[in-house]
């Protein structure tokens, strides 16, 4: 995957992956528009077991259950030679060695016990868009069981608006904060969303204190990153695959297969039953909460989500 394409995947897929994670793992999920009010936030904390939401979940046709594991674990690859026909960002083909090295150090794949033991869980996804500035939502946000933040969205200095609690911080190397402890809690889980092989290589070099490879990133990632190994998780690429194929309708075929289909289209008669039209949707940035923009709450954003 090229650096430009990896950058595009990061902007387009990550917010939708948050939707999948939140809906599957927790019990209530509602998207609010930009005009969020304190009243609407308060009313979003509904009891679990809503039949309406269960029907919506079934309608999405995802091949996962709410008991599935979000994060990759060592034994799946070390003992059983778990194979994947797809490479990143949809699978681990070609990246197994790097993954094994990373998982051997992190060795953790579960949610905190304080969260997993709850029968009914609520969550909220908080970004750094302008719509939350001066909202005074902080105290409401902190009442949720799980608070998910994206990339390097700041917390310190904005607690009155964004709260102070962070359960999960989803990121990739280019969006990683140089000081993860600054805007996270001591028990925050740092969840790497790998889009390319270099993302795993970056984490391996950090964990093993190896010489850093600077090439292969659309933005220089931190060369020193003080994340706790026991609090690092790797998101299973299966969730990106399901998001891309089921929600975004993005073809998952490798490039050689796409070229083969195109060649067949050009060589076969137009009336042939095997002539299939294949379209590849144009990809563009869907959110402005990107790590290359000015940090803080003074830029436009679309990633304030209640779940």
UniProtKB/TrEMBL annotation:
InterPro entries: Glyco_trans_29 (IPR001675), Glycosyltransferase_29 (IPR051142), GT29-like_sf (IPR038578). One of its GO terms (cellular component) is Golgi membrane. It comes from the Eukaryota. Signal peptide: none annotated. Gene3D superfamilies: Glycosyl transferase family 29. Its main location: Golgi. GO terms for molecular function: sialyltransferase activity. The keyword Isomerase does not apply. One of its GO terms (biological process) is glycolipid biosynthetic process. Residues 264-292 are annotated as: Disordered. The chain crosses the membrane at residues 9-26. Residues 267-278 have a biased composition (Polar residues). Keywords: Glycoprotein, Glycosyltransferase, Golgi apparatus, Membrane, Signal-anchor, Transferase, Transmembrane, Transmembrane helix. It is found in: Golgi apparatus membrane. It is a single-pass type II membrane protein. Belongs to the glycosyltransferase 29 family. This is ST3 beta-galactoside alpha-2,3-sialyltransferase 4. It comes from Paramormyrops kingsleyae. The lineage of its organism: Eukaryota, Metazoa, Chordata, Craniata, Vertebrata.
């Amino acid at each position: 995957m090229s650096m430009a394409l990896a950058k595009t995947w990061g902007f387009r897929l990550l917010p939708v992956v948050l939707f999948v994670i939140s809906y599957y793992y927790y019990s209530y999920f509602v998207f609010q528009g930009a005009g969020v009010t304190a009243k609407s936030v308060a009313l979003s904390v509904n009891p679990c077991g809503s039949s309406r939401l269960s029907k919506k979940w079934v309608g999405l046709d995802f091949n996962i259950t709410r008991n599935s594991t979000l994060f990759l674990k060592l034994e799946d690859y070390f003992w059983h030679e778990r194979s994947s026909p797809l490479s990143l960002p949809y699978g681990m083909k070609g990246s197994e060695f790097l993954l094994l090295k990373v998982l051997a150090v992190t060795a953790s794949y579960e949610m905190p016990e304080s969260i997993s033991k709850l029968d009914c869980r609520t969550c909220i996804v908080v970004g750094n868009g302008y719509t939350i500035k001066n909202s005074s939502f902080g105290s409401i946000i902190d009442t949720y069981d799980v608070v998910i933040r994206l990339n390097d969205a700041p917390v310190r200095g904005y607690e009155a608006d964004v709260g102070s609690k962070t359960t999960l911080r989803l990121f990739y190397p280019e969006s990683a904060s140089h000081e993860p402890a600054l805007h996270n809690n001591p028990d925050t889980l740092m969840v790497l969303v790998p889009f390319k092989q270099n993302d795993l290589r970056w984490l391996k070099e950090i964990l093993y204190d190896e010489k850093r490879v600077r090439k292969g990133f659309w933005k220089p990632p931190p060369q020193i990153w003080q994340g706790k190994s026991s609090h690092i998780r790797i998101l299973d690429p299966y969730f990106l695959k399901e998001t891309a194929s089921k929600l975004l309708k993005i073809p998952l075929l490798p490039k050689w297969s796409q070229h083969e289909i195109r060649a067949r289209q050009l060589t076969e008669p137009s009336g042939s039953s095997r002539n299939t039209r294949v379209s590849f949707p144009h990809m563009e940035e869907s959110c402005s909460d990107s790590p290359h923009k000015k940090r803080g709450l003074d830029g436009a954003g679309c990633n304030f989500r209640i779940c």
